[in-house]
Write a sequence for this structure.
C-alpha cells in the first residue's frame, strides 16, 4: 500500500457493500455467544469477553435500518477500534458477510452526496466504484460517537468493573 491508497475491509449489509479502514479492524470472527444486557436499545445485542475486555456487540443492520435478517453461519462480527488514540473503545459490529480487503486510490473516492436536511450522511466518508458496485466508506467515529451510544458506553464500563 502507498500513501495515495486507502485499504478497506469490505462487508455487506443486504445487497450493499460498505468499507472500513482496515487499521481499525482488530478481528473478524463468527458470531458466538453474546451476553445480553438489560435495558439496552434493539441495536445492542449484548457484550462479549474479548481479550479480557467487555466489548459491546452492535447490530449494524439494525442501526442502518435494514430489515432484520436471521443469524446464520455467514453472519460475522467485526471487532473494531473506535475513538481517538488513547481514548479508544472496542466495539463488535454484526454484518451479513465480510468480503475482501480493497485497496483504492484516493483519487477514485468521491464525496458523499447531500441527501437533504432530514437524511444523515455524516457517517459516510466517501464512495467509490468497485467491480461495478458502489462501496460506501464508513466513519466509525460518526456512527458510534453520538449521544445515543453514551448510555451504552456507561453500561459496558459498569459491566467491566464487575469482572
Amino acid at each position: 500500500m502507498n500513501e495515495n491508497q486507502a485499504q478497506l475491509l469490505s462487508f455487506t449489509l443486504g445487497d450493499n457493500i460498505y468499507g472500513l479502514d482496515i487499521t481499525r479492524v482488530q478481528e473478524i470472527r463468527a458470531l458466538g455467544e453474546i451476553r445480553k444486557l438489560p435495558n439496552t436499545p434493539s441495536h445492542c445485542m449484548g457484550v462479549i469477553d474479548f481479550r479480557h475486555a467487555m466489548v459491546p456487540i452492535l447490530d449494524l443492520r439494525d442501526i442502518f435500518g435494514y430489515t432484520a435478517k436471521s443469524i446464520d453461519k455467514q453472519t460475522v462480527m467485526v471487532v473494531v477500534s473506535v475513538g481517538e488514540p488513547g481514548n479508544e473503545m472496542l466495539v463488535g459490529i454484526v454484518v451479513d458477510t465480510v468480503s475482501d480487503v480493497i485497496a483504492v486510490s484516493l483519487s477514485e473516492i468521491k464525496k458523499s452526496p447531500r441527501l437533504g436536511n432530514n437524511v444523515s450522511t455524516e457517517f459516510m466518508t466517501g464512495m467509490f466504484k468497485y467491480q461495478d458496485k458502489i462501496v460506501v466508506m464508513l466513519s466509525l467515529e460518526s456512527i458510534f460517537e453520538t449521544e445515543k451510544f453514551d448510555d451504552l458506553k456507561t453500561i459496558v464500563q459498569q459491566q467491566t468493573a464487575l469482572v
